[in-house]
Amino acid sequence: KQEVTQIPAALSVPEGENLVLNCSFTDSAIYNLQWFRQDPGKGLTSLLLIQSSQREQTSGRLNASLDKSSGRSTLYIAASQPGDSATYLCAVHDDYKLSFGAGTTVTVRA
Amino acid sequence: DTAVSQTPKYLVTQMGNDKSIKCEQNLGHDTMYWYKQDSKKFLKIMFSYNNKELIINETVPNRFSPKSPDKAHLNLHINSLELGDSAVYFCASSQVSGSTYGYTFGSGTRLTVV
Asked: What percent of chain A has pLDDT over 90?
């Protein structure tokens, strides 16, 4: 059974700092990995999708890496802004489902 | 245009009632899902449907019955609601299960059982 762990559970940084969010998973036989953002009381917004054959994906200030053999992914957010405050969820694609981590709640202080 | 839409957004009901949540996607995806987010914000798969066929039923009580009339719709009916059913329920879809295109989620239905 796939288990996904996200560290840290919460993170508070001053504006402008770079953010590093970690995700690990137990079964490396995944199709791909997806990072989501969830604002309080809202739905999930897809940030980045990394296919199992890829090592990283970039979108603007966001960069996600994937090391499938070691079961790890890292989401980097450069030059954080208060608008980046949210919960970030890592999810791995198994057969016919996503397995989620518990999330990292980020607070960026102005 | 909303890609994955759920109705209602909020649902408050008494214990013992029966209620339904509807989900529709206009992305042409062939796989749809229901996820439950509990009070600790953890998201867990409930059901997965591929081309209207049930693929995953993740140890969900029989009181929960999904129905997929076509590839674009996946509804969730809940009988005899219990306090523990209070949660946010998310519908999602993907092009192909485990595909290279990722999952798209609806905005969620917040169910409160009193």
From this structure: 81
